[in-house]
Amino acid sequence: MQPADESRPVRDEDAFDVAAVVNWLGAHAEGGLPTGLPEVRQFPGGASNLTYLLRWPGRELILRRPPVGAKAHGAHDMGREYLIQSALGPVYPYVAAMVALCRDESVLGSDFYVMERLPGLILRKDPTIELTETAASALCEHAWEALVRLHDVEVPGVPELAPLARGEGYVSRQVAGWTDRLARAATDDLGEWSDVTTWLDRHQPADSGRALIHNDWRFDNLVLDPDDGLRVTGVLDWEMATIGDPLMDLGGALAYWIQADDDAFFRDFRRQPTTVPGMWTRDAVVGWYCDRRGLSMTPDRWRFYEAFGLFRLAVIIQQIWYRYAHGQTHNPSYAGFGAAVRYLEQRTRRVISAGGSA
């Protein structure tokens, strides 16, 4: 199986000194590197940390670094992302082998880390393969089973993950933290969110449990094996992973899960092929996940997790829109993010008001 190459030329604003990186890697990567400079390309997606392909004849590595420009407090911690994947390697089969972590900002201008490239297929908005109804349904089960396996990791048995744990109160910290992030990323066109944040604060449940959660679970963060029924072989982008409430992870993932009967704006906004025949609905995902983990769930109980997932997604997009609006990034794919935030504002309100899915 050959890795699917969706890489593109590096955007000018995201370029770096390749020779400096290779010189550093040559001295720090276990086993050394091939000779010469690699071809460097950039992967699409990645509205937060940036991902590059380093390609030599016979070897391919992946480099991850923060974006250029202002950074949200606590985000883009390369050491944290590196530590999580290193610790998970022995207990979770879907992480890449880590190669090296660089804390010397003189090399690239920021911390970065390098890992082995996982071969396989990554699904984007419009897949490059045909998905039959049967294949789409099987893919859903593979993807959500991989999340269940992550949530089932025995965290106390992985001592390297201990620094991620902050004890009870994860839901409360998330509501307060994302409310604060929204305020700090305000732009002139940001709507009035106080009724939404007040509702989330008043209706937040106690933590449903404690697990290692990914916090950005999407098809474009999964590596699939096209020769084995699209089974998951890797999970990427651990930037926001932490120890927290697994139902919050599920709610956050389903904010991205756009289904065939959603309105036209939401369907156009999708980043995954979740509208094709055979894909599960959001309700079906919740039911399957809760059955698989032995959890009791009602629509009224789920309403908080759905509303918070949409709110959190709106804040993530607003943070990127803030950077774009202030000229800190010029990626043209961000030009419509302001409208997306306004849409999510209304969608979140509808979930709150309707007592169920929008």
Give a short overview:
The chain has 358 residues and is of the alpha+beta class. The chain has eleven helices and nine strands. 39% of the residues lie in helices and 12% in strands.
Describe the structure.
With 358 residues, the protein is an alpha+beta fold. The protein folds into 2 domains: 12-116, Phosphorylase Kinase, domain 1 (2-Layer Sandwich); 133-354, Aminoglycoside 3'-phosphotransferase, Chain: A, domain 2 (Alpha-Beta Complex). It has helices at 18-28, 78-88, 105-108, 133-151, 170-184, 194-203, 246-254, 264-269, 282-292, 299-325, 337-354; strands spanning 39-42, 50-56, 59-65, 98-102, 112-116, 211-213, 222-225, 231-235, 242-244. A 5-stranded antiparallel sheet has the order 1-2-3-5-4, sandwiched between helices. A two-stranded antiparallel ribbon has the order 6-9. Strands 7-8 form a two-stranded antiparallel sheet. The protein starts with 17 loop residues before the first helix and ends with a helix.
SSE topology sketch:
Layout: H1 18-28, E1 39-42, E2 50-56, E3 59-65, H2 78-88, E4 98-102, H3 105-108, E5 112-116, H4 133-151, H5 170-184, H6 194-203, E6 211-213, E7 222-225, E8 231-235, E9 242-244, H7 246-254, H8 264-269, H9 282-292, H10 299-325, H11 337-354
List keywords for this structure.
single chain; 358 residues; alpha+beta; Phosphorylase Kinase, domain 1; Aminoglycoside 3'-phosphotransferase, Chain: A, domain 2; 2 domains; 5-stranded antiparallel beta sheet; two-stranded antiparallel sheet; 11 helices; 9 strands; 12% strand; globular
